[in-house]
Amino acid sequence: MRSSTATHQWRGVIEEYRPLLAIPEGTPTVTLGEGGTPLVRSAWLSYATGGEVWLKVEGDNPTGSFKDRGMTTAISVAVLEGARAVVCASTGNTSASMAAYAARAGLKPLVLVPEGKIAAGKMAQAIMHGAQVIMVRGNFDDCLRLSRALADHYPVALVNSVNPIRLEGQKTAAFEIVDRLGDAPDFHLLPVGNAGNISAYWLGYRQYADLGRATRRPVMRAYQAEGAAPLVTGQPFPRPETKATAIRIGNPASWRLAEQAAAESGGRFRSLTDDQILTAQRELARRDGVFVEPASAAGVAGLLQDLELGDSYAGATVAITVTGHGLKDTATALEGFGDLVDTVVDADVDAAAAAAGLG
Ligand SMILES: *Cc1c(COP(=O)(O)O)cnc(C)c1O
Question: Could you tell me which residue ranges the Tryptophan synthase beta chain-like PALP domain spans (predicted)?
């Protein structure tokens, strides 16, 4: 008998879940080992709700956001179809992810971003992975319109989440949550921008329930920034504005699918001020040790607001997706902290102890 010394290594979402993904037979696997992210129990949020609150930490994906789940499938299928170049519109994370996966696949990545609104970390990722970055005088919605037109008229494949193959990869996050908890949570909370993610989670939860791998489907509650809240008001925002740049989107591409997810699950959309979002971001970092980018804290901010408004989560299991890593946008995180290093001492133990207020 051969002795096995290998421990199980996560193989990325295509290899882990291929039979459950609607991707063409024979699709190759272009992967960076995405998915398999931690589900971390939040002690303070569990205490605050009287329930069990779990954070799905998507910043732990290879390029630091959940976008990698959909990008492994989108780029793999683009390779199958013989694409040579790929294009996306992005508030930052899609381009970072696309550039990395395109690099692996030997495809040329072309990125359209709104001028001046991309966090430095995300821009650095796209550039390092060899993307051609084109800044558009306009917002994300303009970039998406251009990307679609480029893909329609030129030999480049579109990998935004309007490409249904993206959602196939992204739905695996719902699978992982159920696999880990043993059933679907009662509630799933998350930020919404272009609305691909909420649509993908709902696909995944429905599929698992249909397969009998979960006994129920969660109520989907999604949160937007006040300055970019079309799903809350029912109207597109021609000039979306928020410090949570990853959800600074005025006319979500998956609008209809997102409304369907909310309606079918008995869920809803609510909006938050930037202040609520940034406060939740800080609390999450200080209390749970989880540093996320601003947009990623919207689900947590939403939970806190729901509690203030009188909703009860007592006794419930709640999953919250925190969508991207805090290191992507340190500038916004550090606003309001003043001087970073405000205490300077000589290299002396007593001086350091005195400055730290010890003893
Ligand atoms: C893309 C993104 C979102 C929004 O997801 P949608 O699928 O566009 O609704 C939220 N947070 C982060 C960090 C993102 O990168």
Answer: 30-324
